[in-house]
Design brief:
Layout: E1 4-8, H1 13-24, E2 28-33, H2 41-50, E3 55-58, H3 64-73, E4 78-81, H4 88-93, H5 95-116, E5 120-126, H6 150-168, E6 173-179, E7 181-183, H7 202-210, E8 217-220, E9 232-233, E10 235-237, H8 238-253, E11 261-266, E12 272-273, H9 274-285, E13 291-294, H10 309-315, H11 323-338
Parallel strand pairs: 1-2, 1-4, 2-3, 4-5, 5-6, 6-11, 7-10, 8-13
Antiparallel strand pairs: 9-12
The structure holds uridine-5'-diphosphate-4-deoxy-4-fluoro-alpha-D-galactose.
């Protein structure tokens, strides 16, 4: 059985945590990354946690010839493709940057997998493909609604490209994992999220505010039709999310897939409001956060959370970590990045 996995975007936030879990599960990992939104320090973090430095190649997945050299040099049978841009607002301002990067990287990887006869691919999809869903929680059968950003469009298109390519290529199978809101960091605090500039996402903004890097967290809207007026999301611990990738790869490597192309939601199944998350962070870490209520952010859906039955039953995956532990790990990571004594 071939237990080598190419992790495209393996130095990034989700990629680095997944690399750790793959190594712990006995896989050989080859990381490809161009550090466009990541840092070589995450590779050192992986080594500190696992004792193993994964094989690393600095390359852009959009550079097909560079990727061809990776396929020539390494005989992995499986690929996990994380290498994509993910800032929703930026994608609205610079759509071509998103279409070019997110689609071309996938096309290159799938074409090379077909050419070199590589079998298994996991794709990083997103809850964003559901758009503003009519019925909650969403199952994998919930119809996808029109995407609300070019970023969301690339995720919908990528799912379709993967599905079509799998069906057209004998021996190729794929799993798209639809992530809800990944948060937290490895409990060792050796790896975590490293957003560049002002964070777009809630938890890095919270931890940077607690660290004094940002003055005040803005809560985007308290007049939504939800119990406390703030938006509801499904916050999934990054290590739990990473484990879902290992199970997805195992399912394909061991020939347990029920269809050549499968889709799984990866969330906790539990809606949490912005206010609850902020209070949870304060309680978990015994500190006070400076925040204020601001206007709604354009493009935000009121609520989305996952029905995770399929991943529970088919992947044998369950979200295990408690939210307070995840929020502790997020703060521990921020402190380690900033050199703060907790
Ligand atoms: N929020 C704030 N203040 C902030 C940042 C966020 O109040 O400074 C709120 C948002 O309004 C939202 C919630 O916190 O209600 C979560 O926002 P994030 O930006 O952390 O996450 P999103 O739910 O907007 O986006 C996530 C992923 C996207 C994905 C989307 C699809 O980051 O990649 O889910 O559901 F497209």
């Amino acid at each position: 059985m071939n237990r080598r996995v190419l992790v495209a975007g393996g130095a990034g936030y989700i990629g680095s945590h997944t690399t750790v879990e793959l190594i712990a599960a006995g896989y050989d990992v080859i990381v490809v990354d161009n550090f466009s939104n990541s840092d070589a320090s995450s590779l050192e973090g992986i080594q500190r946690i696992t004792g193993v430095m994964p094989t690393f190649i600095e390359a852009d997945c959009c550079d097909k010839e560079a990727m061809r050299r990776v396929f020539e040099a390494h005989d992995f049978d499986s690929v996990i493709h994380f290498a994509a841009f993910k800032a929703v607002g930026e994608s609205v301002a610079e759509p071509m940057k998103y279409y070019r990067n997110n689609l071309l990287s996938l096309l290159n990887i799938l074409e090379l997998m077909r050419e070199y006869g590589r079998r298994n691919v996991v794709f990083s999809s997103s809850a964003t493909v559901y758009g503003d869903a009519d019925v909650l929680p969403v199952t994998e059968m919930t119809p996808r609604k029109p995407a609300t950003s070019p970023y969301g469009n690339t995720k919908q298109m990528s799912e379709d490209i993967l599905r079509d390519m799998v069906h057209a290529t004998e021996g190729l199978q794929g799993i798209a994992l639809r992530y809800f809101n990944p948060i937290g960091a490895h409990p060792s605090a050796h790896i975590g999220e490293l957003p560049r500039g002002v964070p777009n996402n809630l938890v890095p903004y919270i931890t940077q505010t607690a660290a004094g890097v940002r003055e005040c967290l803005s809560i985007f809207g308290d007049d939504y039709p939800t119990p406390d007026g703030s938006c509801l999301r499904d916050y999934i611990d990054i290590v739990d999310l990473a484990r879902a990738h290992v199970l997805a790869i195992g399912r394909m490597v061991e020939g347990r897939s029920k269809a050549r192309y499968e889709v799984f939601n990866v969330g906790t199944g539990r809606p949490v409001s912005v206010f609850e998350l902020v209070k949870g962070f304060e309680q978990a870490n015994d500190l006070k956060l400076n925040y204020r209520v601001a206007a709604r952010r354009e493009g935000d859906v009121t609520a989305i959370w996952a029905d995770t039955t399929l991943a529970n039953e088919e992947l044998g995956w369950h979200a295990e970590r408690e939210l307070c532990d995840t929020l502790r790990a997020a703060w521990a990571w921020e402190c380690s990045v900033r050199g703060i004594d907790r």
